[in-house]
Amino acid sequence: MPEESRNNETEICNHFTKQEVPKRRKMMHRVFSNVSQRRYCYLTRRYSTSIHSHEPTASQLNNMSKNANVLRMIEGFRKYGHLQADLDPLGLLTKQNVPQLHPSYYCLNDSQEKVDLDGLLAIPSQRSASIPDIISHLQKSYCGSMTAQFTGIGDPAVQAWFAERVESAPSTPLNADEKKKVLDRMIQCETFDHFMQKKFGSVKRYGMEGLESAAAGLEAVLEECAAEGVTDVIITMAHRGRLNLLAGLLQLPPDRIFWKSKGNSEIPEGVHAVGDVLSHLGQSATIDFNGKKMNVTLIQNPSHLEAADPVAMGKVRARQTRMKDDGSKVVCVMLHGDAAFTGQGVVTETFGLSKLAGYRVGGTIHLVCNNQIGFTTSPENGRSTRYAADIGKLVDAPLLHVNAESPEEVIKSCKIATQYREKFRGDVVVDIIGYRRHGHNELDEPSFTQPGPYVNIRSRPTAIQLYAKQLQTEGIIDAEYVNQIKAKEESRLDASFKSMKQPTSSDDHFKGDRWSSFKQCQDATAPVPTGVKAELLNEIAQVSVQLPSGFEIHSRLQKGFIQARLEAMKKDQIDWATAESLAFGSLLKEGYDVRISGQDVGRGTFSHRHVTLVDQKNGKKVIPLNELGPGRLEPVNSSLSEAGVMGFEYGYSVECPKTLCIWEAQFGDFANSAQIIIDTFITCGESKWLKQSGLVIMLPHGYDGAGPEHSSGRVERFLQMSDNDAVDLHNERNKRPNFRVINPTTPANIFHALRRQMTTDYRLPLIIMGPKTLLRSAKAVSKLSELSEGSHFTPVIGDSQADPQSVKRVVFISGKYYYDVEQERQKRDVRDMAIVRIEELAPFPLKEIQSQVAKYKGATTFQVVQDEPQNSGAWMYLQPRLSQLVPGQLQYIGRPPCAATAVGNGPEHKRESAELMERIFA
Ligand SMILES: Cc1ncc(C[n+]2csc(CCOP(=O)(O)OP(=O)(O)O)c2C)c(N)n1
Question: Is the CB of 135 under 6 A from ligand 1?
Fold first, then answer.
C-alpha cells in the first residue's frame, strides 16, 4: 500500500469496527491514491510518528478494536479538552465540565491495569499506560495552559498531524538559553513601555503590558520561518504593542519613535506628504535569526482595524509572484486584537481569499493578541463565539489557544502554527490570551467600566515576574538577571533618545530595486506620450483573438467577439474592449505584467472583455494575450468581496510597481463596500506613508435606467477626496494630485489612461468611471491613429463640430451623457452650442479648460450638464473651479437632488431623462 494511503487509514481504524476495517481500507486506498491527496500525505510524512505514519499492523488494529472505548475517550479529549484548559490568566473564561472528559462516559474505570498504547496514543517512551495515566497525559495535552482545536477540520491528515504534535510533546523542550531569550524579549517589551511612560507620559502608546509573551511568540514564528528557509515575512498588526515590536524585534531605531513622540514629523523635509500617527509607522529590515537572514516588513496601517489584512496578503502574493515562490520563501503573518478579529467583516473577506487560486499565499499565520477587551467592551458583548479565534474555523484553520502567562507554551503554540503552515500551506490561528494592564491607552481609566478585572490585574504580578521566578527556581537565572537586562535595554533606549534627529530624504522611501527608478510626481498634468506603433497594435488585436488549434469557441463569441474585433480593426473603428486589450497587450510587450481582478473580470460583467476564453468542449481556458509576452496577463475572477479584494490588489500594486494592477467592480455602486480601503489607502497612502500605488479602479458608471445600486460609481465621492485646491486653481500642488479620476468617453482615452499608469516614473492610483452602454455604442469608437505614436491621453475633448464664432453657449459634460446630448443637438440642429467633454476630472485640467473657454469668445452661457442627480456626479466638484474660469454665472442642468443614486423604475427614469433633455435644449 502506498504511504499516502496509510496515514489516512489510521483514521479509518479510529472510526470503524474491526470487521469493517478491511473493507474501509480498500475504499480509502482508492480514494487517497489521487494526486492531491498524495500531496497532503507527502506533507504529513515529515512529522509523522508511529501512530500516523505506519500502516496499522494487524495487532494494532486488534488493539484499537479491543480498546475502542479508550480510543473514543482520546477523541473526546481532542474534541472537548479545550473546555477545561487553563487559558485565561484572569479566570474570566469559564471552564466547562463536559461528560466526554470523564472515563465513566466511556465505561472506563480507574484501574491500574495497563492498556497497550499501540495505535491509540503517543506518550513519549511509553508502550502502555493505565487509564489514569492516559487521562493525565490527555489533560496535560489538552487541558493545560495551551490547547488546540482541530477535530472539526475536514482534512483527516491535518487532524492526525495536529493530534500528534500536541500529544507527543506536552512539555516544552526549551533549553536554558532559549528560555532566557524568551524572558529577555518580554523584558525588552516592558522596558520600552516604561521608558515611554517616563519620557512621554501623555503619548498614547497602546502598550503591550499583559501580553509581552506575544512578542516572544512572534519572535518564535520568525525564527521558525527562517529555519524553514523563508526569506521574506510580511506582517500586519494594529496599534497594540506595535511600538514595542518596532523598537525591539523589528529593529526600527527607537529614536524614530521618540522623534515622532515629541510631536515631530517622520516625513523628511522637502517631501510632499502629511505623515501619519505614531501607531501606524511601518518598518522593513533584514534581520538575522540564528544566522539566517530574513527580510521582515511590518506594513503601515490605518486606524481602521484589520483593514490592512488583505493589503498585507496582496503584498505577499505579489512578492511570491515576483520570486516565483509557492509560499516556501515569502510568508504572511497577521497580528490581531481579539475584538477586531471577531468584529470586522474584512477579516472574513480576507480569510475567504486564503484558498483561492488567484489570491492564496500558502497560508497566513494569525496571532491574536487577546487582551480580552475591546476598548471597554468585554467579550460577552463583543462576540458571539467562545473564542476570539473561532472565526478561523471558516477556512478550516486549526486553532491554538494559549495562556499568555505561560511563555513557553506560547512559544510552543507559535512553533506548531508555523510548522503547520509550512507543511499544509493553510491558515492557522494562535490565540494568546492575556490582559491589558492599563486602559485602552495609557491615559484612559479602565476601571470606570471593568472594576472587577482591574482589581485583579493591578494586584497581579507581571508575566515577567512570574516567568523570572520560574527560571530562578529552575536555576537558570539569578535574582539580578531581570534588572540587568532591563538596565541594558534602558541604556540602549537612552542612547537612541539622545541621538534622535530628523529623518533625511534618503530614509526608506523609493529605495530598493523595485522603486529606485521612481520618484514623487512633479506634474501629473503634463501629457505623457503613450501612443504605440500602428503595426504593433494591429498585431496585438490579432493575437488577442487567436485561438489554439482545436479550441472550440462559443459560436456567439466567434461571431460577436472574434470576427467583430477583426472587422472593426479593418474598418478602423476600435471599440472599448479592443482598446483595453491593446493597452494590455502593448504593456505586456514592453515587459509589464497586467493583473485584473474582481468579480467576473475574465469575461467582464457586460460580456465585452473576454480576455479569458473557454473551450466549449472541455471547459479549458486560454488567455490569448499571453502569447505576446514577455509580460503576463493575469485575469482573476474574485470571490464576491470588495474590501478584501480591493485591499489585496492595493497591496499587490504597492509591491509591484511594474504590474498594472486593476480592480474592477461589478457595478461601480459596489465599490463603497470597500470604502475603508479607498479612504485610508488608495487616496492617501502616498501622503501618509510615501507608498505609491498605481492601482486602477474600474467602476462601471452611468444612468441607463438600472436604478439605485446599478447606476453610479459615485464619482462625487472620489472627487471630494481629491486634494485638488478648488480655491487657488494655480496652486502648484495641483500638479501633484493624490490620485486621478477620469470619466472617459473614447476608447483611445482608456487606452492611453491605462498605458500612462505604467509609463510614468511615478505611480498614482487611477479611478475610472467606466462604461456600460458605451461598450456597444457604435459612436464610442476610436481610430487607430488616435492610439498610435505621437498620441496621448486627452484630458479635455473640445467640440469639433461647433463653429467657435457662432457659439453662444458652452456645455461642459463629463462622461457618456455626452453622446446623448450630442445626438439631440444634431437632431435639433442646434448650432450655437459647443460641448466640451471633461475626460479627466482630477487633476483638474486647468489649462485645457482655459483654452476651451478662450475659444468661444462670443459665448455668454456656460453650463455644467449631467444626467446624475444634483447631489452626485461631477457638478459639485466642477462648480467652484469652472466658476472661476468662465465669464458670468455657471449654470447647472441635471437631475434634481435625489436620496437614492437613481429612481427605481425604468419608465420613471425615461420620463426624467426626456424632461432633462428638454431643459438642456429649452
Ligand atoms: C474599524 C474600527 N472601528 C473602531 C475603531 C476604534 N477602536 C480603536 S481600538 C478599539 C478596540 C480594539 O480592541 P481589540 O481589537 O481587542 O484590540 P486591543 O486594543 O484590545 O488590543 C476600537 C473599537 C477602530 N480603530 N477601527
Answer: no
Q: Quote the DSSP letter at residue 529.
A: B
Atom of ligand 1 nearest to the CA of 344: 1
668 shares a domain with 603:
yes
Number of domains in the chain: 4
Identify the CATH number of the domain in which residue 422 sits.
3.40.50.970
φ and ψ at residue 180, rounded to 5 degrees:
-65, -35
Claim to verify: residue 470 and residue 345 sit in the same structural domain: yes
Q: How far does the centroid of ligand 1 lie from the alpha carbon of residue 371, in Å?
A: 12
Residues in a beta bridge with 334? 236, 366
- Residue 150 counted as domain residue: yes
Question: Does 338 sit in the ligand 1 pocket, CB within 6 Å?
Answer: yes
* Nearest residue to 224 (alpha-carbon basis) of 351, 216, 334, 300: 216
One domain, residues 218 and 79 = no
| CATH number for position 571 | 3.40.50.12470
Residues 576, 639, single domain; the answer is: yes
Residue 758: strand, helix, or coil = helix
852 lines ligand 1 (CB under 6 A): no
What are the start-end ranges of the H helices in 558-695?
564-570, 576-589, 643-655, 675-677, 685-689
Query: Ligand 1 within 6 A of 339 CB?
Result: yes
282 and 260 co-located in one domain: yes
Q: Which atom of ligand 1 is nearest to the CA of 440?
A: 19
Residue 107 Cα, ligand 1 centroid: separation in angstroms?
A: 48
Q: How many CA atoms lie within 13 A of 913 on its CB side?
A: 18
| Ranges under pLDDT 70 in the chain | 1-56, 169-172, 505-512
3-state secondary structure of 621: strand
Which of 375, 441, 675, 680 to probe ligand 1 with, by most ligand atoms within 8 A of CB? 375
As a whole number of angstroms, the distance between CA 516 and CA 519 comes to 8
900: domain CATH number is: 3.40.50.11610
Are 561 and 471 contained in the same domain? no
377 CA to middle of ligand 1, Å?
10
The residue out of 168, 188, 222 marking a domain boundary is 168
In a domain, residue 509? The reply is no
**CA 430 to ligand 1 center in whole angstroms:** 19
Ligand 1 pocket residue status of 179, Cβ below 6 Å: no
pLDDT tens digits for range 444-460: 999 999 998 999 999 99
Asked whether residue 241 is domain-assigned, the answer is yes
Residue 294 near residue 286 (C-beta atoms within 8 A): yes
Could you tell me if 222 and 294 are in contact, meaning their C-beta atoms sit under 8 angstroms apart? Answer: yes
Tell me: the pLDDT tens digits for 376-431? 999 999 999 999 999 999 999 999 999 999 999 999 999 999 999 999 999 999 99
**Measuring from atom 18 of ligand 1, which residue has the nearest CA?**
337
Is residue 205 included in any domain, yes or no?
yes
Is 744's C-beta closer than 6 angstroms to any atom of ligand 1?
A: no
What pLDDT shows up at residue 170? 54
Q: In this predicted structure, what is the pLDDT of residue 507?
A: 54
Rounded to the nearest whole angstrom, what is the distance from the C-alpha of residue 340 to the centroid of ligand 1?
6
Q: What is the pLDDT of residue 443?
A: 87
Provide the 10 A C-beta neighbour count for residue 355.
15
User: Of 479, 498, 517, which one is at a domain's C-terminal end?
Assistant: 498
Q: Within this chain, do residues 333 and 378 fall inside the same structural domain, yes or no? A: yes
Please give the residue range of the domain that contains residue 10.
Answer: 3-168
Sheet with 796-797: list strands edge to edge: 796-797, 833-838, 809-813, 861-869, 890-895
DSSP secondary structure letters along 726-781: SS-TT-GGGGS-S-EEE---SHHHHHHHHHHHHHSSS---EEEEE-SGGGG-SSS-
CA of 784 to the centre of ligand 1 (A): 53
Q: How close is the Cα of 343 to the center of ligand 1, in Å?
A: 10
Task: Calculate how far, in angstroms, residue 374's C-alpha sits from the geometric centre of ligand 1.
Answer: 6
Q: Is the CB of 313 under 6 A from ligand 1?
A: no
Residues 234, 161: one domain?
no
